[in-house]
Amino acid sequence: MNRKPLVLPAAIGLLASVLAACGGSDSGGDGGDAIVVGTTDRFTASKEAPAPFDPAYAYDVGAWNVLRQTVQTLMAMPNGGGDPTPEAAEECGFTDSGNERYACTLRKDLKFSNGDPVTAEDVKFSIDRALQIKADTGVFALLSTVDAVETKGDREVIFHLNSADATFPFKLSTPVAGILNPKDYAKNKLRDGFDVSGSGPYSLKAETKGDDVTKVVFTKNPYYQGISDVKNDKVELRSFEDTDSMGAAIDKGDIDMMTRTMSPEQIKKLQNAKDSKIDVIEQPGLEIRYIGFDVEKPSLKEKAVRQAIAHIVNRGELTSKVYGTGADPLYSMVPATVTGHANSFFNEYGEPDVTKAKNLLTAANVTTPVKFTMNYTTDHYGSATKAEFETLQKQLNDTGLFDVDIKGEKWETYRPKQREGKFAVYGMGWFPDFPDAETFLTPFLDKDNTIASPYVNKRIRENLIPESRREADRLSASKSIEEIQSIVADDVPLLPLWQGKQYVAVRDDITGAEYALNSSATLQLWELGRGVGS
């Protein structure tokens, strides 16, 4: 059996594994051919999304995984989990008792991959630029507490915040805070296409076919200074149309590793294969799936309709039927294992109950069956998404209370339509910006939220989110975070469905694969090396 589950501490993000790849050597050597990694993430430049790799625009896990290899941030999440640690910075920290002034000192002689020096002014330029461009993806909202950026000399950067934000070091570890070379980026315009200029572990060259990226070639940056130990000279990230073609490529040896998104059937087949040269690594993850409701659409405006849906959806049936052991039912937008998690939807609705749903609709004078369309993306979250929405459709329609249609389309058009409010009900996934409860709440509930939701709750926005940010001890923030979850469970602007595990399939001559993906689904390609197959 080729399944290699990791036995890990329960603490968030502690993904340091005791598992050793079959290849042996930890270093894997610096020479040899490029290590080739497969993904079903698609990168397309379009009128709606002209700058997929611009840090001021990108806000999905695939693009972020490209940027994390190439664009350096002041802070970074260490491989073993825990709090952010200085990366491009030599040191960082709050300089006041109110968590409103944060100062960083850059490493000495830090350089971009082309040899240009990295200065404090470059940091200021990059942060100011993201806030000024204010891209419609909403990624700039991660920097919403920044009031002003001050520089002192070439190496010192001071962030003046407009309110207390104990999570700010985490936000400085995200690609939107990546340090850019002003020679290559306009201060008030996105950089179209697929070029990236940074000071991270690698430089980048994208190979394209039309408007689509087919391959991203990462070459080791000789000027890189940071916490990552780069164990290879070159990695290629190849984009595949679907999981089947990606699976065929690793079977033939055309690629060395594949990651998101593998299908449940593919995972099971690889795990049960005998005498295979491909190992499957299973890790806990913080990926979630949820349904979003446009609370201004006529069919969903009445809260009782959304509550009735929450009474009917059977998460246990959904996960076991579609994802097997690869996903667990989720009863909050905040995943289990994250500090502040509460089973708010289970507390509010309990087990699925059609009678309670019917009584709610009757009391609210809602005419049944309630008719609407659930929209989903066919190519962004994996091939199982269609089966997931077919299952949800059947659960709702079998009650006689709903008349639900489902419609799928490619992410390239799906995401812009979702942001433009063209869907009444839509399926989405979320990978955390950083391992903290805030990143599972504020991106959907705060002003300028990433899903452009019209739902507004003043207590959440004006009181609870600011309260939670004031607490440097995240356990102390749990009271505010749990209240947010309770309000969401009552109003149901969002309906959490499941929390997923993560899988990597790797040929047995590749070392470091157990470290190549952290709990936030961040690819760490610098961990990969080439050893000797069994």
TrEMBL record:
SUPFAM superfamilies documented for this protein: Periplasmic binding protein-like II (SSF53850)
Family: Belongs to the bacterial solute-binding protein 5 family.
Pfam families reported for this sequence: SBP_bac_5
Annotated GO biological process: peptide transport
GO CC terms of this entry: ATP-binding cassette (ABC) transporter complex; cell envelope; periplasmic space
Signal peptide positions (record): 1-20
PROSITE patterns: PROKAR_LIPOPROTEIN (PS51257)
Places the protein is found: Cell envelope
UniProt name for this protein: Peptide-binding protein
Residue ranges occupied by any Solute-binding protein family domain in the UniProt entry: 84-449
Key words of the record: Signal, Transport
Molecular functions per Gene Ontology: peptide transmembrane transporter activity
